[in-house]
Write a structure and sequence with these properties.
- The structure holds two protein chains of two kinds.
- By secondary structure, chain A is mainly alpha-helical.
- Chain A has 14 helices and no strands.
- Chain A has helices at 8-31, 40-58, 62-84, 89-109, 111-114, 126-136, 148-176, 178-188, 190-195, 200-226, 236-249, 255-270, 278-292, 300-306.
- By secondary structure, chain B is mostly helical.
- Chain B is 72% helix and 4% strand.
- Chain B is built from eleven helices and four strands; from the N terminus they run ααααβββααααβααα.
- In chain B, the strands form two sheets. Chain B has a two-stranded antiparallel sheet with strand order 1-4. Chain B has a two-stranded antiparallel ribbon with strand order 2-3.
- Chain B is globular and about 60 Å long.
- The chains are: A mainly alpha, B mainly alpha.
- Chains A and B meet through helix 4, helix 11 and helix 13 of A and helix 4, helix 9 and helix 11 of B.
Amino acid sequence: MSLSWINPYYLLVSSFLLINVLLGVSIYITLSTGQLSLGNAGFMSIGAYTTAILTTRHGIPMPAGIAAGTLLAAITGILVGIPALRLKGVYLAIATLGFGEVVRVLFVNWEKLTGGAVGIAAIPQMGRRILSIFRDTGFSPEDWGLRSNQFISLTVFFLLLAVTVLVILFFLRLGSGRVGRAYSAIRMDEPAAEASGINTTYYKVLAFTQGAALSGFAGALFAHVTSYISPADFTYHRAVEILVFAIFGGSEHLLGPVFGAMFLTAVPELLRPVSGYRNILYGIVLILVIIFRPQGWIDPPLIRRLRGGRTPESR
Amino acid sequence: MFAEQLINGVTLGSIYAIVALGYTLVFGVLDIINMAHGEIFMFGAFIGMTVVTSIGAPLWAGFLGAMLATAALGYLLERFALRPLRGKSGASALAPLISTIGVSILLENVAHKLFGAGNHLFETPFAEIRFQVGSFTVYLVQAVILGIAVLLMAGLSLWLYRTKAGKALRATAESLETAGILGIDTTRMITATVVIASVMGGIAGVLVGMAFNYINNQMGLPMGLKGLAIIIFGGMGSVPGAVAGGILLGLSETFMVAYGSSGYRDAIAFFIIIAVLLVRPQGLFGGTAAESR
């Protein structure tokens, strides 16, 4: 049986797609309390740089590095989330965008730690690490008719797929529980939520921190998939891209950003035949979709219809 | 040295102020952050460059070309990216943010196709003319930039606060519905606002070309972000706030580069807004508390 049709390039694109899904979910969580944070690229870079520095320079094992990156992003999330409580709407959006820029400029200038604008190279790659563990136990991908680069991209893809599915399930469960109901109550009417006994400060900071932690986690995974990071990976463009995932896909249901991230990562690849014009087309697609479906592709009524329930809106 | 840096800072700051005014006008009337403003600014710079440097026409023709082109872009932006979303059910406050981001991506890449990547030289006929005032040197270009900036700001203030059209615009900003009931053609006012804001962006683009001599198709974004930072600092929709914020940012950046570290130059704007927002969430000149928009 020949498995030579397995294309490492498409698997790599799919792995980035899954990381983008995680980022889309991360902005959704913060947004589900009505807080628009554009700092996710900054949190992502904190996660990526933490694990890159720890694993590359200090020989810390990869899982510990990823955990440390996630944790540091979460702590930064608390530190940013508390003063951010004072801000609302576009003010919060721009302040968090500013936070991301400040982090990026810090990484560019702190050359001793971060390598400056050049970034950090030769970060341990997830798939290669797993392959070497397998080889130590006597396994060889050739036994299965796989080339080693095919094996590497396959393991990365399935690992990320498992992680992404777990994360989505976790936040779907969270959304239907006590925390999720508190989030929606705050999003719909904050004073009313407070009046009915919801600790809005706690839940808003919690949502902010969860979003930051998930961005940091996605960033750490990103570092170990590409094995090279630089401040250019975490610019304003990244922040806006993450926002667009959520708004384009639909920001009223968790599956919206998931769909948005998948669609918008796939579209540039599908537009490859017209590569000279694909960014122009991307811009046009974005404008058209938001005009014809301003709430995003996926919204709660659509989810209900997909489930087959014909129940009318009971609000 | 100090006085020259002061002049450099004020010149840069007055360009920032004009960019910020474009944001603040649109935000004041529509409550929308126009993410495409930076790219319209960039287009203005390129049209100005094409007319002045490539064709060799006089500078005023460059300004005229840039103003006409950005007016057209502003009209198209309003007509196709903002108007369809107005009053549409399901359109949250975020929808126009995304549609203008779409326009900004479109414009940046169209400019890439039309003018190519990399830096383009913007030659001003009198770039080298300078004169001595006391012990320091002033370039004529700086004086021209400052003069145009002041004229523009004064003109805008007069138009906003002393004319009937300006009054109609302020009424529209106050309440779209009430202004409509009182017989103001609000659609026309909104279109006018976006067009005027875009023209200001275009003028600022030509001014930047004159000040720095180099332009490229990615210059819209950093300028746009600084403009946003300034209106946060000065208060959304506040004209004096935008002017004060712009000058302050220009001065801080110039002195940071002259006496500190140039690496942090582009982060100053954000350091300032984060600090200001923590102390006064509604901006220095913002009257009302920052509400969710």
